[in-house]
Amino acid sequence: MSSPAQQPVRSDFAARLRSGTRADHDHVQSLPFLRTLLAGELEADAYAVMLGQHYFAYSVLEQAADAMRSDVVAGPFVSERLRRLPHLETDLHYYLGPDWREVIAPSAATERYCARLREVCFDWPGGFVAHHYTRCLADLSGGKLIRSAMRRSLDPPDGKGFAFLTFDDVPSSAGVRNAYRLLLDTAGWDEREQRRIIAEVRLAYHLNTEVFADLGSRLPPRIPRPRG
Fold first, then answer.
1. Which of 136, 170, 219, 226 has the least C-beta neighbours within 10 A?
2. What is the pLDDT of residues 35-64, one digit of tens each?
3. Which residues form a coiled coil (predicted)?
4. CA separation, residue 150 to residues 104, 138, 218 (Å)
């Protein structure tokens, strides 16, 4: 499959995409696992499990990025600044030790997520962008906030363990987001293709909901922490 590339006339697709998927985005943010994370109450082992699930998803997504790098439509969205796999490896080594690859395993929800990534991200530029947008911009936008929450939760004495959430090569996350929105607005997709991409982003949020719901089911019963 391939998406039709029209003349790069400026559209309002980025705004349409955001408004058309806002409810799906908000639903993911409301899940117990993410609420626990953002409250600074997530334990290190639960955080490591989350990183492991992200590792499997990013492994497929970044393979697709390499495959799409020369594509006239999808290629401009590929950015080394947003590559997370090496940073996930650093954090997994920190939390789980040198044998971390033997410790992590994808959940059934992550397997379904990765299967969809393999299905649409390697030969459909719009599909790749839909999943790249959903995964990478979410981690970029929320990285600083989540890192701050996890520091409250774990308080690592050496300050390590947050490479995945640290975008040292991004001087301005707002600048990257604005550039990404400009690419969305000038990609040249027609109305039909835009609808397909919005539907795929909604599916991506649904698949991520399943991943985080599974992670939430593994959390121990919540015991309120005293605030001192």
1. 226
2. 999 888 899 999 999 999 999 999 999 999
3. none
4. 20, 17, 18
pTM of this structure: 0.90
Give 131's Cβ-side CA count (13 Å radius). Answer: 29
The length of the chain is 228
**DSSP letter for each residue of the chain:** -----------SHHHHHHHHHHHHHHHHHTSHHHHHHHTT---HHHHHHHHHHHHHHHHHHHHHHHHHTT-TTTGGG--GGG--HHHHHHHHHHHH-TTHHHH----HHHHHHHHHHHHHTTT-HHHHHHHHIIIIIHHHHHHHHHHHHHHHHH--TT--S-STT--TT-S-HHHHHHHHHHHHHHS---HHHHHHHHHHHHHHHHHHHHHHHHHHHTSPPP-PPPP-
| Structure tokens belonging to residue 23 | 């409810």
CA distances from 173 to 74, 100, 113, 133, 141 (A): 20, 30, 26, 14, 7
The values of phi and psi at residue 112, to 5°, are -65, -40
Give the count of beta carbons closer than 10 Å to the beta carbon of residue 152: 11
**CA-based nearest residue to 54, from 128, 121, 139, 172:** 139
Q: What span, in angstroms and rounded, lies between the C-alpha atoms of 104 and 94?
A: 13
